[in-house]
Structure formats: structure tokens, C-alpha cells
């Protein structure tokens, strides 16, 4: 009897101890419901007030400059577009990345479980569709190449007639000037006479160059046509310049009253016609170059679509063969990696496309333009230099590990030691692409403009900056203390039906409040355990 009582007491002690431990662990564990919200990646730095200094604006990606929308000396307003890059290559790359994503998703879809017969039939249908897409892509490429050839030939069709018109006009101009030379410039003792005869001789040389082009029996290749147009363009540029020189001589003190009004009118009429012809030649050259560039872009895109269609067909056909032979064993992890890689490429290209435009972040005056339309520019090469209209700015040095997160236009919260408990709004208006060493660490200088200048602000005053480097809205957010990293993987503990399980997740940006973005692995409303 005593033994029974002892066993009962021991059992009660064990149960009470177990319950106590469970309650203690439950109290130690904190639970958090996964929510959606906004998260901001911030960079903290200290800067100093300075007087307005030059702002160096550059693109974050290299490329060909499509437009320069301002001129030196121009006053620009906040938000005004200053320059842009040609986005055609980036758009083609984005289209290729989207097509790679489509292929990767197709490959991933093939991994979904189902009966072998269903898989084979479904995959066979996909093969048929992919083959049809490939056929259409090949047909589209063929049509694009044919259309490009036709459009270019049509553009070149007016070359001969324009060169012939140029020859007729050059001959007429030379005949006029030959008569004027005989009437007014036979006296070799005057320097103006020598200059006039030299100009007329130069016009004769240019006229002969155009004449040689007309007398050529056959100019078959487009390259030869291009060369002929360039020669004609340069010749008429020279002709117009030399006529203008002769006009100036006719207005000199010696010839002012010797030249008849009729002959002066002849000179002005020849100059006007030469200018008009030069414009027509230049316009045709530009039109030809434009058609070539457009054809190149269209053919590149069509070829890319064909390559993508071929790759898609090959991938699905390979899957069908493995299904039919019973040897299918696709790597789920590899397929997911392809999907993620394509998505990252798309995100990167979208950022580059978005950053292919320079916009004024404050009122300023254009001081220097370093590049012209059509020129290639490297990343971070200063394209424009602006002088701000605002007197005061804030300069700060940013650590090289943080500078990649920052770009012109990022909002900034500013606090001054001189004005406690006051917060001012600002914006990054310049990022100097040239780094500098401080204590063997590389820093890059940024300039921040203020929306409102506090009274009694002075140069060299200290400013604390909170830079909003990146912001994402309506994303899944959890506290950092719920995230566990081990063996190169990131996971959380999820409470499901009173059972705690581990889930691998993919995270994004973090903020200074201790929150972290969850990109994959969790759903809205799930409960996680915080350590």
C-alpha cells in the first residue's frame, strides 16, 4: 500500500514538472503573425552644410545617349528631363529574359506529379505548341529580313536622282560664278580678287567630284551609295561656304559699288539653292541611317525570338523523350534556380530601363554638357554638370558598401545639431562617381538639397542624414529575431496545428526597426515562432 502511494506521488511530481516546463517554454516563446506592409532600407550618415557646388549627373548604366534635352546655360526646373539613353538594347534584353523565364516556368511545370500517360499527353501537346511557335518565329524572322531589305532598297532608290540633281545644280552654280569671275575678278593685284578666284576654283573642284559620281556607269552596293552621298554632302557644304566667302568679298569696300545688284542676287540665289540641296542630302543620309538602325533592332529581336522558341522546343521535346523512356528525373532545385535567375535578370533590367533617364532633382542651371546625342557613355561618367540655384546644400561621404544602394532622387530626412527636435526633408541631387580614400576605406561624395532652408543655417553645420535607399510596398514582413540562418540556408519556425515545423524562406531588404522582407516561403497570416 505504501509503495502504491509512493508511486502515485512520484507520478504526480513528474506530471507537474512536465506541465511546468511546457508552460515555461510557452511563455518564453513569442508568436508573430505574418503581415503585409511597407519596408524601407535606410542608410545613416553624417554630413556638413556647404554652399551650392556643381552637381555631377551620370547614368548608372552605360549605353548610347538618345537625347540631350537641355543646352548649356539653361535654367532647369525640378523634375525636368535632362537626358536619356537609348533603351532599345535594354528592352530587347528584357524581352529575352522574359522568354527565358517562360521557358524555365515551363520546365518547372513539367515536374508536377501526375500519371505517366497524362504527363506524356500533356507534354506532347506542349511539344506541338512549341513546334508551331518555332515555325512562326522562323517565318517572322524571314519576313522581317525581307521587309528590312525592301525598306532599305526603297530608301536608297532616290540616291541616284538626288546626286544627279546635285550635279545639275553644282554645274549651274559654277557657270554663274565663272561668269562673275570673268566680270569682276580679272585684276590679280587685289587680295580680295585672289580670295574670290581661289573660292571659285574650290567650287570647280567640288563640282568635278560630283560630276565624277554621275558619270560612273554603275554604283551597285549600298556601301558605294553611302560613300557617294557623303562625298556629295561634303562637296555642297564646301560650295555653300565658298559662295558665302564670295558674297562677303562683293560687300567689301573695293567691290561694294562695282557689283551689280543683279549679280549679287545671283550669288544669294546660288547660296540658297546650295543650302537647300545640302539639307536634302543630309536628310537622305539621316533617313538611311535611321532605317538601318530600325532594321537592325527588328532583326535582332526576331532572331532572339527564334532562338528562344528553339530553346523552348528543345527543352520540352527532351522532357517528352525522358517521359516516354521512363527515365524522367528533372532537378526541381535546378529548375527553380533558372526561374529565380530569369526573374532577377528582369528586375535588374527594369531598374536599368528606369534609370536610363536623367531628371533634375532641384532647380539648377546647366553648366557643362560632356556628351552629345549618339555618343556612347560609360556607367557613372558625368554627362551633365549643374549649378544649383539654391545656396545651401549638404555634402556627405558614403561608404562604398552602401553607395550601390543609393541613387539620385532618393528622399532624405535631415536633422541638424543646431536645430534640435526639428526634421527637414531633402533629396539626393548628385553622386560623385569618383571615390576617395579615407583611412584606407573608399567613400563616395553625395550632395543633398533641402526643400526648406532653416533660418540662420551656416556653412559647416553638422547634419544627420537618414537616406531612404530602397522602399517596397505591400510585401510580407517579419521580425529579424524570427529568422534562423544555418548551413547557408535561411528558415523560420512555423506553428501549424500546435506543431512547430521549419520552413526555408528567401529574404529581401531589412530596415533599422528590425524588420525583414520575406520574398518566398511564407504566406500572409501564418504564425511564426520568435526566438
What would you say about this model in short?
By secondary structure, the protein is of the alpha+beta class. It has helices at residues 2-28, 88-109, 116-156, 159-184, 191-215, 222-250, 261-325, 332-354, 400-403; strands spanning 30-33, 35-51, 55-58, 63-68, 75-76, 81-85, 357-359, 364-369, 376-377, 382-388, 392-399, 411-416, 419-431, 436-438, 441-450, 462-479, 484-486, 489-496, 499-504, 506-510, 515-520, 527-530.
Structural features:
five-stranded antiparallel β-sheet, 9 helices, 531 residues, six-stranded antiparallel barrel, flat, alpha+beta
The number of helical elements comes to 9
Number of strands: 22
For the largest beta-sheet, the strand count, sense and barrel status come to: 6 strands, antiparallel, barrel
Q: Identify the overall geometry.
A: flat
**Helix-strand makeup class:** alpha+beta
- The span between the termini is 47 Å
| Widest beta sheet: strand line-up | 2-11-15-13-12-16
- Low-pLDDT runs of 5+ residues are 14-27
Q: Mean of the pLDDT scores?
A: 82
Helix % is 40-55%
Rg computed from alpha carbons, rounded to a whole number of angstroms: 37 Å
Which range does the strand content fall in? Answer: 25-35%
Amino acid at each position: 500500500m505504501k509503495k502504491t502511494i509512493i508511486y502515485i506521488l512520484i507520478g504526480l511530481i513528474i506530471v507537474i514538472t512536465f506541465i511546468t516546463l511546457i508552460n515555461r517554454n510557452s511563455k518564453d516563446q513569442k508568436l508573430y503573425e505574418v503581415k503585409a506592409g511597407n519596408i524601407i532600407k535606410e542608410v545613416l550618415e553624417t554630413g556638413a552644410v556647404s554652399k551650392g557646388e556643381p552637381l555631377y549627373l551620370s547614368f548608372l548604366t552605360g549605353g548610347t545617349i538618345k537625347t540631350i534635352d537641355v543646352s548649356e546655360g539653361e535654367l532647369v526646373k525640378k523634375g525636368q528631363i535632362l537626358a536619356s539613353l537609348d533603351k532599345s538594347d535594354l528592352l530587347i534584353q528584357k524581352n529575352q529574359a522574359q522568354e527565358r523565364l517562360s521557358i524555365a516556368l515551363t520546365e518547372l511545370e513539367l515536374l508536377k506529379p501526375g500519371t505517366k500517360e497524362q504527363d506524356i499527353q500533356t507534354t506532347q501537346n506542349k511539344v506541338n505548341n512549341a513546334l508551331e511557335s518555332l515555325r512562326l518565329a522562323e517565318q517572322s524572322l524571314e519576313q522581317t529580313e525581307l521587309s528590312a531589305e525592301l525598306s532599305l532598297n526603297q530608301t536608297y532608290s532616290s540616291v541616284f536622282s538626288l546626286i544627279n540633281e546635285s550635279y545639275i545644280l553644282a554645274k549651274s552654280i559654277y557657270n554663274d560664278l565663272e561668269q562673275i569671275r570673268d566680270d569682276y575678278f580679272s585684276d590679280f593685284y587685289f587680295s580680295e580678287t585672289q580670295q574670290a578666284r581661289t573660292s571659285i576654283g574650290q567650287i570647280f573642284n567640288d563640282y568635278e567630284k560630283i560630276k565624277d559620281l554621275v558619270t560612273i556607269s554603275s554604283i551597285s552596293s549600298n556601301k558605294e551609295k553611302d560613300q557617294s552621298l557623303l562625298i556629295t554632302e561634303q562637296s555642297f557644304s564646301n560650295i555653300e561656304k565658298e559662295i558665302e566667302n564670295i558674297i562677303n568679298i562683293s560687300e567689301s569696300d573695293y567691290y561694294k559699288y562695282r557689283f551689280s545688284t543683279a549679280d549679287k542676287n545671283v550669288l544669294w540665289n546660288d547660296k540658297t539653292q546650295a543650302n537647300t540641296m545640302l539639307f536634302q542630302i543630309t536628310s537622305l543620309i539621316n533617313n538611311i541611317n535611321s532605317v538601318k538602325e530600325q532594321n537592325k533592332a527588328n532583326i535582332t529581336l526576331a532572331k532572339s525570338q527564334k532562338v528562344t522558341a528553339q530553346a523552348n522546343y528543345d527543352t520540352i521535346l527532351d522532357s517528352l523523350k525522358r517521359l516516354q523512356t521512363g527515365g524522367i528525373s528533372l532537378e526541381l532545385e535546378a529548375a527553380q534556380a533558372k526561374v529565380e535567375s530569369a526573374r532577377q535578370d528582369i528586375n535588374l533590367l527594369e531598374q536599368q530601363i528606369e534609370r536610363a533617364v536623367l531628371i533634375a532633382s532641384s532647380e539648377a542651371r546647366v553648366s557643362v554638357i560632356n556628351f552629345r546625342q549618339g555618343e556612347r557613355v560609360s556607367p557613372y561618367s558625368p554627362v551633365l554638370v549643374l549649378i544649383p540655384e539654391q545656396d545651401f546644400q549638404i555634402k556627405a561621404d558614403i561608404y562604398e558598401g552602401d553607395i550601390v544602394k543609393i541613387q539620385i532622387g532618393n528622399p532624405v530626412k535631415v536633422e541638424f545639431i543646431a536645430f534640435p527636435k526639428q526634421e527637414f526633408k531633402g533629396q539626393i541631387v548628385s553622386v560623385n562617381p569618383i571615390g576617395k580614400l579615407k583611412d584606407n576605406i573608399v567613400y563616395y561624395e553625395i550632395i543633398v538639397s533641402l526643400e526648406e532652408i532653416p533660418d540662420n543655417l551656416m556653412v559647416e553645420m553638422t547634419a544627420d542624414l537618414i537616406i531612404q535607399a530602397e522602399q517596397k510596398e505591400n510585401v510580407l514582413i517579419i521580425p529579424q529575431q524570427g529568422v534562423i540562418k544555418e548551413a547557408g540556408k535561411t528558415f523560420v519556425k512555423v506553428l501549424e496545428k500546435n506543431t512547430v515545423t521549419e520552413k526555408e524562406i528567401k529574404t529581401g531588404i531589412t530596415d533599422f526597426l528590425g524588420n525583414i522582407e520575406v520574398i518566398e516561403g511564407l504566406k500572409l497570416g501564418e504564425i511564426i515562432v520568435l526566438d
